[in-house]
Amino acid sequence: MEIPDPKNSLTTDRVFNNDTQATGAMAGILTQMINTDANSSFASGLTSITARASADEINLAFLNTDIGDLARNSLTAESGFANGIWSSAYQAIYGANSVMEGIEASKSVLLRAQTRTQLNAEAKFIRAFSYFYLVNCFGDVPLLLSTNLAENANKPRTAAAVVYQQIVNDLIDAVNGLPADYSAGGGERIRANKWAAKALLARVYLYTGDNSKAIQEATDVIGQTGLYQLETADLNKVFLKNSSETIWQLQQNEKKDFTGNAVPEAVYMLPSPLHTGVSGDLSSYLLKAFEPGDLRKAAWIDSADFSQGGVNYHARFIYKYKTGRHNLVIGGAVTEYYMVLRFAEMYLIRGEAFALSGQLSAGIEDLNVLRRRAAIAPLPTTLTRDQTLAAIAKERQTELFGEWGHRWFDLKRTGKAEQVLSAIPAKQPWRGNYQLLYPIPKTELQRDHFLTQNPNY
Question: Is the per-residue pLDDT at 71 higher than 90?
């Protein structure tokens, strides 16, 4: 008996029959990543929301119960936050694996070799990107490189070092297969290109201690002066769509209910009559890290008065995006996309890698590029190694605050997490460093009996 194709979906041979449909499959993955509620997808805001609370970036007393439990390190395996990061990241990985397998299986002459190469490389980039956040949030995670449900259903956790090696392999392939321009996105910076892959590769090399390669990859991106420049005249332009600092952004659907033309995370990040946003109130630990006159504090932080639960607050909130729940328009003109990779990080990566390699003056100069842009005094090149690394940590804190878990990941990878976080009164009692990884979701443990829970959860 022959069973007809389902009427409500495209079969693989049809999806990968030609350039347009295959490209549409990749666009579908990106759309799913960003056009999801910020509280449920790692790529539309959940990573930033959870990591801000796990780190020292927000005033914990201001938070509601659910996010407050996260911030106070009392997360459980039933947490919707952990489940949201886990499930959405693996959903993106499944989509990327589907694209790679669909391209390999397609015999259609209408799917050109150039398109095959580009989409395969882009899929590997998405897979590497998703695994980067999984391994930094959960540690050892199952490494799934196919869509075979029977094979994937009972996968044990893979050592983080092995996952990182796969990330590196995927990104190297992505560098070799992606275009050097933004033609895939019609000129908009909403599809990964060669430099996006190199930017993420530079970060991965820094995280894994390969400083010389981190320097090389970051230098390659910094050298693309025709594409990337720091916004020195007005820091309010940094997070605009296709800004000169954009390496890669995700494009939201402006017609979507609730978020409209706003970046999904910004709907929760900026104040509105409906709620204060999980990003306010910013902590005193973050605010005092800024030096007097730092333009980043003036441009990227704002405040407002609220009454919540009968208590009046003066909340300081992240203002990197200017469109939020208070002024979004469903179907309105889009001025901001969701910033994922940006140019300033390349100076921070290279500066840290220089310092760790003993090239202190070169590292300090990379910091000074960003300090001059922020209108604060350059650092002297006579700093010691420890002073330089401390300056880099502070510069990362004031440049990348609130974005994609940078602060939380930085504290963990540099061994400063316990020292910094255990001293925060609202995080007491400090139950142990096991809290630096999120629990594997209970639903996943029930589904896959080969999975094991992170210690002490």
Answer: no
- Contact criterion met (CB below 8 Å) for 157 and 142: yes
Asked whether 354 and 360 are in contact (CB, 8 A), the reply is yes
- Single-letter amino acid code for the residue at 36: T
Percent helix, strand, coil in the chain (nearest 5)? Answer: 50, 5, 40
Mean pLDDT of 372-389: 96
Q: Share the mean pLDDT of the chain.
A: 91
Q: How far apart are CA 72 and CA 89, in angstroms?
A: 24
Write out the two tokens for 348: 């921070």
SS3 74: coil
What are 115's two structure tokens?
A: 């398109």
Check whether 87 has a pLDDT greater than 70: yes
- pLDDT at residue 7 is higher than 50: no
Give me the residue label for tokens 């996309």: 337
For 255-305, how does the pLDDT look when each residue is reduced to its tens digit (9 = 90+)?
999 899 999 999 988 877 554 554 568 999 999 999 999 999 999 999 888
Provide CB contacts within 8 A for 238, sequence distance 6+. Answer: 231, 245, 320, 339, 342, 344
For residue 193, the one-letter residue type is: N
- The residue written with tokens 């899929």 in the block is 123
Helix (H) or strand (E) run with residue 362 in it: helix 360-373
pLDDT digits (tens, 9 = 90+) for 199-247: 999 999 999 999 999 999 999 999 999 999 999 999 999 999 999 999 9
CB-based contact 194:175 (threshold 8 Å): yes
For residue 245, the SS3 value is coil
SS (H, E, C) 85-149: HHHHHHHHHHHHHHHHHHHHHCCCCCCCHHHHHHHHHHHHHHHHHHHHHHHHHHCCECCCCCCCH
The single residue listed with the structure tokens 């990061």 is 85
| Whether the predicted model's global pTM rises above the 0.70 cut | yes
Residues 423 and 403: their CA atoms lie apart, in Å, by: 23
Nearest to 285, CA basis, from 314, 313, 316: 316
Biggest alpha carbon–alpha carbon distance for the chain = 79
Whether a cis peptide bond, with omega within 30° of 0, leads into 281 is yes
